[in-house]
Amino acid sequence: MRPPLTYFLSFFAACTAACFLTACGKPPGGPPPAQGKPTVGVITVQPRHLALTTQLPGRTSAYLVAQVRPQVAGIIKTRLFKEGSDVTAGQALYQIDPATYKATHDSNLAALAKAQATLKTARLKAERYKQLLAIQAVSQQDYDDASASLGEDEAQVASAKADVESSRINLSYARVDSPISGRIGKSSVTPGTLVTASQTTELATVQQLDPLYVDLSQSSTALLQLKHAMARGELQKSGANSAKVQLLLEDGSAYPHEGTLEFSDVTVDQNTGTITLRAVFPNPDGDLLPGMYVRAVLQEAVKENALLVPQQAVSRDGAGKPFAYVVDSEKKLQRRPLQTERAVGDQWLVQAGLEPGDQLVVDGQQNAAPGLEVNVTPWVTKPADDASHVAPPAPAIKATASN
What we know:
The chain is α+β, with helices and mostly antiparallel strands. 26% of the residues lie in helices and 36% in strands. A hairpin with a 5-residue loop joins strand 15 (315-316) and strand 16 (322-327).
């Protein structure tokens, strides 16, 4: 026989189970009212004219660089420039002691004068012998000897002239001039320093800074993809002339002057897999200096009928693949797998998966499922969001990708 406490507990458990089943069953008043259809915010996908740009890292370099070296040996007497100043082509930079070169030049001038005097005598003698030979007053041998002597004296004069010119050049090299116009750096020598014509250390370096080169690096893979897209007709060239290039400085500010792309190298760097591009920028204010790190915004091509969608409209599945929901003609949701090409600000450039005119769900995807019937309302951004969503689409948009 069970104790009274056991009967009481069994009875209490039975009553509790009955109440639970009654609560889980249908209420006596009938089924609850059906919930309303969810509302989603949508936009109509429209094609746009899109200018594709790429940000490429680069370094600035001087347009012209000349390392000033002596072409004759001697003692530096004077430095004729101020370090860090602008110099012009042909401006004197250093003066090497010219004494020995001037003496050599004077000696060669004297030797030339002597050779010219000897030549004059030999020429007169040869002319007289020619006249005497006509009347048989001298022998043929005497005339031949006079003619040969004349030829030797002419050669001596030519040699003396060459020596004079050589010594004149060496004398002029005693004055070290700037080979180009530009800005000169620090001097590696001071007055009193002995320099030689074969030394490897430059006296100074002159660099032309206006205009200025910017050497950029682009991956060969990105370049091939661009060429293939153009070959398929998906992209058009940005223009017949040289591509325009914008520059971003190290502090993130935009350089005020626009540059042009000059050429693309024909060799791929085996270590980095990149190709060097060279652009030219005006530098009238001297803001750019050689060796600065910059980022160039290069306009690659133009994409017609580009499809841009807000990034918040694109979700990703467990495998990381992008997808989005669109509303069909029956107000039901369809799930579309997407292929995105690149980010354009806060939007995605969609390569495949959407068509112009699709009603794309931007807001309300939390409970979205394929086949779910929904109410549709135009998507309007909040004031804190980017104003580019609510503004009308511009006729041309720039898409920038970093390399």
